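JOB MANIFEST
job_type = single_chain_structure
chain_count = 1
residues = 633
[input]
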Amino acid sequence: MKSVIVGTAGHIDHGKTALVKALTGIDADRLDEEKRRGITIDIGFAHLELSAPDGGTLRLGFVDVPGHERFVRNMLAGVGGIDLVLLVIAADEGIKPQTREHFDICRLLAVRRGITVLTKSDAVDPDTLEVVRLEVEDFLRGSFLDPAHSPIVAASSLTGAGLNELNSALAKIAAEVPARDSTAPARLPIDRVFTMKGFGTVVTGTLVSGTISKEQELGVFPTAKGVRVRGVQVHGAATDQAIAGQRTALNLAGVTTEDLARGMILAPPDLFRSTSRLDVSLRLLPSAKPLKDRARVHFHSYTMETIAEVRLHGQKLVKPGETTYAQLRLAQPTLLLPVDRFILRQFSPVVTIGGGVVLDATPLPKLKPEAVCPFLEVFSAGEAEAILGARIVRRGSQGISMAELISETGWPQQTVESHLSPATSKGAALRFGDMFINAAAMRHLSSLLPAAVADFHTQNPLVPGIGKESLAQKFKLRPVIFDALLNSLVRDRKLEVAGDLVHLPGHGVVMKDDEAESKTAIEQAFASAGLKVPSLKEVLAGLRVDRARAQKIVTLLLRDKVLIKISDDLVFHHNALTDLRQRISALKAATPKIDVARFKDLTGVSRKYAIPLLEYLDRERVTKRVGAERVIL
């Protein structure tokens, strides 16, 4: 069963709610004030099933919106997720101000399909109805509701005239609506929040993508609060799962009505992140005033609204009817993705002035317009392979993960994989696990790293190499990319790795005469001391070189394992420790155990040395401590 969302649009008192009731039998006005005043104040909902031209079944969800100019903000909360529109024009009044504003909103939201309904046809004579039809045809010409391909149906909710024709037209057009992507990550913009006795917290909305199932864990954006779906309803009927394109009600656990509000969005908790900056393509209506850079506007998308500041990319003013690139800085964060549509309304007086499409919901900070606009051109063109390539390129040496590509685009992993396959197979993009990097960025890094290591050698002649971690941090490289890059450079013999140190091939420590003399002095001081070693501080104090160079010489001797550090303040020559291990092992035949007193007698050292040395022998698996004694292994 195919699900399609139908929205109404039109001036106040032109019969939108009455038309929905005549078609579905459901009164979409649910508020007492609406019934008392006889006008729609908030969005209402109804549903209808029709037979499709191919014999299948169409499930239509109706979103009825208010027509009064004071409630356009509520109207905008309803039309964001519609698939087709019923533009309602009363035959006894014709085109009015909110007819024009609602129609502009539908075009700015890129609604592609719809039907124009001349309601109250029973209230006028045939000649008047024909005059109104001609006026409407002229108004719609050249738009998505051009009479050449979109029907105009005269109908009366009071007498039922024209309703059969309208149902047939609805079935035909709804059958042509492309199905929404149920494989994409789920997103449900919330339009109602209430408590239902016996159930608890309930939210409703139009599921714009993906699927939502019972017991599924979701996140509430922008707060990131986690919730669990206790129950799912579609058009009032309980079900195990809702799919994209359906009007959906969810019974939520782990949250109260105070935690939720219209404008929030339910989505997978760990996949997306909220944003307060959007790079967009913005179009100003021909009827609007010029829009200046840094102007404040009212921003609407799906069911949310907030204040935004418009930062024009590369210009100070956008003229009526023009389209340009801009960054919108939102007063409140939200969850939006590329291709999502939005509406802008003037800050004061509040009238619709334009709208557009989100191109990037994760703009990189501190990029100048001349660097941003080329990427926005690619994003705007809509070619998936080029979009992914551009997202990889703009990350430079940082690369980008599969999870980040899914989050930035909103596409399922299989879609990202398929569209990246040509780039990876041609070598334009390189893949390491779940990380991707542009091949040109990798080549650039391949020249930068050896140069950085060479510079390190120049600055630190007594240090054998730079630590891997330090080298990776110098270029802020992610571990997977750094490891792949380093392995490649080692294979190409441009770098060598010794333990945790990276150095140039054939590089050796270069010492001056006083440094070489100091190195010999340090080694001899510990070699001649046996196990009764002096403190390192005493040895270094007697050298001709400064303390910083002396410490680097010690580091070199430790790296080459000439000296071995067994505790924070005890360093021994390797020969002394090798002799000790052999002596203790030789005792095993005579006595399998040794205690601290016996060890002190055997080695002639004090307790200050004995305890650290015994702990060293434990670590080397020469002995094993059992109580107060050591078992010789």
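[summary]
The CA atoms of residues 496 and 503 lie 5 Å apart.
Residues 439-459 form the longest helix (21 residues).
exit_status = 0
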